[in-house]
C-alpha cells in the first residue's frame, strides 16, 4: 500500500507537469522536491480559492480543518478518506455532532471558548462531539480524519450557528472540485463519489523510474 501510494503521488505530480508542459522539472529535481512543490502549489491554490470566495461573499467558507483536507486530497488522492463521499460525509457528521453537543450542553448562545475560556460544559461538548463523530464515521464507513477537527471547531463555538452549515459544506465542495480537476488533469482517476477498497492502482507506465 505504501509503494502504491508513493507511485500515485508521483504520477499525480508528473502528470500535472506534463499537462502543463513542464515535465523537464521532474527530470531536473528529486522526486521528493517535485512532490513537495506539487503540494505547495495545489494546497495553496485550493485554500486561496476557498478563501477568495469567503472574501467576496463575507461568509465562512474557509475554516481550519479544510487545511488538513487539502493535504489529504493532494497527497493520497486515491485513498478512501480522500474520496468525495468520505470528505463530504465526514465533515457533515463532524459539523452536526458539534451542533448537537452545543445544544445538549446549552452552549448555543455562548461566546466561543477562545473568547471566554474552557469550562466544564465546554469540555463535555468537545468530548462528546469528537466521540460521536469518530463513532459515526466508523459505523457509516466514511472515515475522514479532518472531520474530527470540524467537530471541535463547532463545539468550541467558532461556528455555532446552524445557518452556517450549508456554507461550511459549500467550502468543502469547492475544495473537492479543485482536487477533482487537478487530479484528473494529472491522469489520476479521482472518483466522482467513492473509492472502492482494493481497487487496482492506475497504470504507472508513464511514471518516471
TrEMBL record:
Taxonomic superkingdom: Bacteria
Stretches that traverse the bilayer: 34-54, 60-76, 88-105, 125-144, 165-186
Pfam family, one: TM_HPP
All copies of domain HPP transmembrane region, residue ranges: 38-191
Keywords carried by this UniProt record: Membrane, Transmembrane, Transmembrane helix
Coiled-coil annotated residue ranges, if any: none
Database matches in InterPro entries: HPP, TM_HPP
PANTHER family, alphabetized: TRANSMEMBRANE PROTEIN DDB_G0269096-RELATED
Annotated protein name in UniProt: HPP family protein
Organism: Marinobacter litoralis
Amino acid at each position: 500500500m505504501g509503494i502504491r501510494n508513493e507511485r500515485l503521488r508521483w504520477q499525480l505530480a508528473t502528470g500535472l507537469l506534463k499537462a502543463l508542459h513542464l515535465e523537464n522539472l521532474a527530470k531536473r529535481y528529486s522526486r521528493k522536491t517535485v512532490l513537495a512543490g506539487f503540494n505547495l502549489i495545489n494546497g495553496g491554490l485550493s485554500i486561496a480559492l476557498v478563501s477568495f470566495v469567503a472574501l467576496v461573499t463575507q461568509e465562512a467558507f474557509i475554516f481550519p480543518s479544510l487545511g488538513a483536507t487539502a493535504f489529504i486530497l493532494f497527497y493520497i488522492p486515491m485513498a478512501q478518506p480522500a474520496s468525495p463521499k468520505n470528505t463530504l460525509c465526514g465533515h457533515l457528521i463532524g459539523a452536526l455532532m458539534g451542533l448537537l453537543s452545543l445544544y445538549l450542553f446549552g452552549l448555543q448562545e455562548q461566546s466561543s471558548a477562545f473568547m471566554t475560556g474552557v469550562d466544564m460544559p465546554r469540555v463535555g461538548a468537545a468530548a462528546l462531539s469528537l466521540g460521536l463523530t469518530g463513532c459515526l464515521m466508523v459505523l457509516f464507513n466514511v472515515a475522514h480524519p479532518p472531520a474530527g477537527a470540524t467537530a471541535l471547531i463547532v463545539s468550541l463555538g467558532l461556528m455555532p450557528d446552524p445557518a452556517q452549515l450549508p456554507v461550511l459544506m459549500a467550502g468543502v465542495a469547492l475544495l473537492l472540485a479543485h482536487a477533482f480537476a487537478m487530479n484528473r488533469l494529472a491522469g489520476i482517476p479521482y472518483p466522482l463519489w467513492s473509492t472502492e477498497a482494493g481497487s487496482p492502482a492506475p497504470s504507472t507506465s508513464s511514471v518516471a523510474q
